[in-house]
Amino acid sequence: MNQRTWQDELTSESATALYPLGTQRWNKDGTKRYRYVQYDNGTANITAVANIMVIYKSASLGAGTFIVTPDISDGDGSSGAKAIGAGQLLVAATDQYYLWIQVEGLSEVAAQDMTAGAVGDELTGVGANDGEFDVVATGYIGAPCGILVVATASSQKVFLQCP
Length: 163
Description:
Layout: E1 13-14, E2 24-26, E3 33-39, E4 53-56, H1 60-63, E5 67-69, E6 85-89, E7 98-110, E8 122-124, E9 134-135, E10 146-151, E11 155-161
Parallel strand pairs: 3-5
Antiparallel strand pairs: 1-7, 2-3, 3-7, 4-5, 4-6, 6-7, 7-11, 8-9, 8-10, 10-11
């Protein structure tokens, strides 16, 4: 099997792109998938912390530019009802830097980063607040990006499957 050698760690970020945006890679045991993106803190200038949800910035997915933000008002479709969940940050990201986000596989989410949910609920990347997951609600026209598989008072586990 031919395996690629990566120039960085999944938890690193860079001021310049090391790979084409949209590049994907898997962890060593093949249970988690990651995508290389550019981070934008959005109009609201949101401080990014590890493990929050990000969405595709307006028109970036269709244009193939893979720019992500936690700012709901800047989401693809310019509306929370249309925003498309991109994945989960692995690091406290710096505005306009390039980094990996987790897009598939089991992931831990802090209770404060989940608007609501019960085990088995489909989730979207658009919560009540920027950077939160939420349950797919009636009228949501975006793509679900995960399923809540474990819910406790302190944390949740989500199986991510973001486009």
